[in-house]
Design a protein that fits this description.
36% strand; 9 strands; five-stranded antiparallel sheet; alpha+beta; 206 residues; 28% helix
């Protein structure tokens, strides 16, 4: 299991910010064909719910651990510890199944895509990552892990009944499961146009 390391290129912007806090997280990147399929399914929602800030398709990912702001050496140390802790972790499959909301349908704030296959494996993986992250000096997450893919955030509470009817009418399906064979540590860069994600490290599952 080979892990990419930061290169020594003097023009690498990450290396020039080794001592500056980097906003980062650990996630499962979503294959591009799946992103396209999700986009096609979401098309009716996007058209009818303009008040929702939808996640750009290129940015879709399954977050396993939000690291917050940390310097690159600390993130690199976490990567090494994760490599050791997960060296025998096997790849598995997940399947997206349904669209839901947080906290509840009568007052939706977050629109998400749920999982009906591989959820237990994903939860166990997230728990291992959480423990290693805590041992590496990152803040421990107090909320229980919930396997979901964030699709959008509702910006106002207008037309709740209309939203409910739309949610209840959407049927989500994908052809086959998705193989989860790697994890990615992303850097999150906030821009006026929205967040931009860059890969810092990847960890391959066997």
């Amino acid at each position: 299991m080979d892990l990419p390391r930061p290169c020594n290129d003097d023009h690498d912007p990450v290396l020039h910010e080794r001592d500056k806090p980097i906003r980062s997280f650990i996630a499962v990147d979503i294959p591009n064909p799946v992103k396209s399929a999700i986009g096609n399914t979401l098309s009716p929602l996007r058209e009818s719910m303009r008040e929702v800030k939808w996640v750009e398709l290129d940015n879709l990912h399954l977050t396993l651990k939000f690291l917050g702001n940390a310097e690159l050496p600390q993130i690199g140390l976490l990567k090494e510890k994760l490599f050791n802790a997960l060296r025998d972790e096997r790849k598995f499959s997940i399947r997206f199944s349904r669209i839901g909301v947080f906290p509840e349908l009568k007052d939706p704030k977050i629109i998400w895509l749920g999982i009906d296959r591989g959820e237990a494996c994903l939860r166990n993986l997230a728990m291992k990552i959480e423990e290693v992250s805590f041992q590496s000096g990152f803040q421990k997450e107090t909320r229980p892990f919930s396997a979901h893919l964030t699709l959008g955030r509702v910006r106002d509470g207008k037309n709740i009944q209309q939203k409910k009817r739309i949610f209840e009418a959407i049927v989500f399906s994908l052809d086959g499961p998705i193989e989860l064979d790697r994890l990615t540590i992303f850097r999150s860069i906030l821009t006026p146009k929205g967040p931009h994600y860059e890969t810092l490290f990847t960890l391959n599952l066997i």
